[in-house]
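Usage example:
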Amino acid sequence: NAGVTQTPKFRILKIGQSMTLQCTQDMNHNYMYWYRQDPGMGLKLIYYSVGAGITDKGEVPNGYNVSRSTTEDFPLRLELAAPSQTSVYFCASSYGLGTPSNQPQHFGDGTRLSIL
Amino acid sequence: EDKVVQSPLSLVVHEGDTVTLNCSYEVTNFRSLLWYKQEKKAPTFLFMLTSSGIEKKSGRLSSILDKKELFSILNITATQTGDSAVYLCAVEENFNTDKLIFGTGTRLQVFP
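Running the assembly step on the lines above writes:
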């Protein structure tokens, strides 16, 4: 089972460039999330989605955009890359409300992004 | 402001030792508390706790939640080098979003 798949695994950007981090899941999960993890820190929520066409801001949304046109895909867009966005980005998914309880979020392997 | 605090930040032990990792929280609408293990890549799920006083156990790992005192502990007995990782505690908010609030993690290093 593929689970949550993120691409690319690594990327180096120059300041001001833009890019899209891809995330797809094959578990038919309703909810999807984007987190960033800075060195020695926990994960902070950037954006989340409770279904196709529905997105909302998390704790640290500035400088990012998302879309959710399908249940499977939840791309994260950086429009004008800044050094402060150097981090490891994790995508996650879960069943969500109305589905079996006690189902945790499942994480992808992450994208390591450096802005120079 | 909702927060999750883990202690200690770092722990170095020898194989065979027993360790206790702590997680305290202040969250307005608590739904559940989760423990994840993070090695080099994705956090992997260990436990989800929703009720006080009920121990969850998986092999040498166990965890318990105290909803009155707002904390949880993760115990690892007879540690092995493969237990070396960052252990993350997260609290799930009781909204229609399943959002998680993470602590900063405890880095455990187990030496032979």
